[in-house]
Amino acid sequence: MTEFLTRSKDVLRSTPLRLAIALVILFAFVSLTSLGASYLFIRDSMDQSMRSDLRQGLAGFKAAPSAAAVAALVNAEAAATDPKRRVLSYIAVDGRHFGNGILARTEDGFRIIAKPDSEELSDSPYLMLSSQLYGGQLSIAISRSQIGDLAELFASILLLSLLPTTAIALTAGLIIARRSARRIDAVSATLDKLTDGDLSARVGEMPGRLDDLSSIGAQVNRMAKAQQASVEALKQVSTDIAHDLKTPIQRVSVLLNRARELPLLPPELEELVASAGRETDGIVATFQSLLQIAQIEGGSPRARFKPVDLGALAATFVEVYEPAAEESGHALTLASVPPGSGLVLGDKALLGQVLANLIENALRHTPTGCRIDISLKQVGSAVVLSVADDGPGIPKNQRGKVLRRLYRLEQSRTTPGNGLGLSLVAVIAELHDATLELSGSEPGLIVRLRFPTVPEVEIHPVSGS
Amino acid sequence: MKILVIEDDKTTGDYVAHGLREEGHTVDLIANGRDGLIQATTSNYDVLVVDRMLPELDGMSLVKTLRGTRNLTPVLFLTSLGGVDDRIDGLNAGGDDYLIKPFAFGELSARVAALSRRPQLKEAETVLKAGDLTMDLIRRKVVRGDVEVDLLPREFGLLEHLLRRKGRVQTRTMLLEAVWDISFDPQTNVVETHISRLRAKVDKPFDSELIKTVRGSGYRIEE
Asked: Whole-prediction pTM value?
């Protein structure tokens, strides 16, 4: 049921249906205006001709030489006239009445009189012209039923033309809207899959006519194909680099290990071998981080994401780092997190890497005696992880740059680290749809990661709808 | 133990084979995937060490084929690729553990040992012993000589893990995986500081040292 409602909502929101509705409204407006205008025009001219008709009639009687002649003429013509169409009335000066109906005495000129109280007369109003003649009152009235008929005629023209047009346009709009809704669904489902890292997703064949939507579908497919090719190329390059460079590094570290195991190695040489080993480890770490960043940016499948308890993960990492922090004179704390809060959809190993990098970063770049406070809060529909320290911080104008690969602040060139920690945090954050924000009043640095919370359905899959 | 190493890089292959032989294992070294698969299916091995990128037949296909024939010999993948996906792909293909190049021999040796003994975990034990130290798993008590040692829960877990694997080296990453259930490569000496806290309680007040550091590898409690 809810699915049906959302579907109908989607259809209502679709462009073709909106266009159809807009066109129907426009058409109705134009027809109403033009019909209305012609109705008014025709009514006006009918009114004019009725008035001139009345004036002529009256003029004919005025030509009579006396009141008696007028009465005779009125009676003669009235006998041949249907009072439903035309009423003639002459009230003489002595009060006698001639004609086929009595029209009350009134002022001279045109008047519209409502339905007269007489069985013989028509139901509709009359247009009446009166004039004083030989002391009496002569009145002629014509039924306005023709004008009433005209209004009815126009109303039925309106109904006959407007209603079917509206119905046909709306139905056609709805049908086209549903068809394009299906096409749009196909395109957007494919785009969703592509965003989630499934680069093999394609928009299927669209039955029916080719239109702009099917050409967008084809464009999406071309784009996905190009993207897939470039990701595969990137993967191939990373694989080749990994293989061609890591194998010799492996050999170097094998050789260094062998050298270290040689008996009777002079202490100076032993120290040299050990520091060569440390340098090799550094190369490996840098290399590994670069490869990892490239792989994540190349589209790591989010399909493998699972709900991860970020609170529990943060607690574990704080516990792991706490003795090391204490040894280097730092106070590492975690603000108490209610269990089960901070559930995010993600990759546990990568999220762990984020925590490790942020904590190691803080340990490395703050002097002894500094505090490192980690907290996790539910803010609205987001889970906010923050790592705050009261060390020297990062100057405002450098904050964007530290997220760049291999960028290092001048003062930290002498400290260990390869300048990839925060870049890796940034790409992992992006992969998780999280926003990364550096703030803090100098001194001090606050790194905030705002994760979207796990939608309910992701945790408890509901069957059916 | 009988171990088959399938690795096409001669330096790495020789080093691994040489190191494992020195530890007393019987090692066969093969340099390409096709021959490796034939060797693995025709002889019985305790552990296979397989490089992921091999000539003629890659390591993933090799292990998939092997699992297809219901051969369940534990496999340790060696790889130059270190992405999350690569790791998951490797484990999905039927690998039991995964080691990223370059690795220290100690890490490889410890992981090979862990693989081969995996099915023999004696979970039913309630009391673990090493020298004059006794750990009572039910009452959560540790006694050395006749002195009770007061441990925090995680210190208890760390000591329990080492005691259960008496005589075998446990590397830093193995300890992080087993005791804290996290897999990452720390750039700081996090595991060392936990071990030194544990030593301060378990070893320092007594005459002898139970937890030994194995240079270049990790830690071990002697049998």
From this structure: 0.62
